[in-house]
Amino acid sequence: MKYMMFVCTDSEPEMVAEDHIDQWVAENDALGRRLQGSELAPTTAATTVRVRDGRLLVSDGPFAETKEVIVGFDLLECADLDEAIEVARAHPMARRGRLELRPLVGSEQ
């Protein structure tokens, strides 16, 4: 089953040496559990697109009025939610932010 894992934090994170994210990535890539992933550019690079009453509205930055920021994502392939939770639990950002798991519709095995 495929899961999108959003990597979230309360602010733009500073990476520190003890994060070991490269180690987490290498391990999950080698096991075939991480299909793709990337850090995202800062929210200052974001563009929000909406259509309201037939009008295109484009604005700089994220639309949501929140301090929480999505700073990256990983596409996971796991046997079930329990395995996806264990993969997320081991991610270094689980200790400084939060990881949101969502199954991809139609990815059930």
From TrEMBL:
Residue ranges annotated for the YCII-related domain, each copy included: 1-104
Family statement drawn from the similarity comment of this UniProt entry: Belongs to the YciI family.
InterPro entries according to UniProt: Dimeric_a/b-barrel, YCII
Top-level lineage group: Bacteria
Name this polypeptide is given: Transcription initiation protein
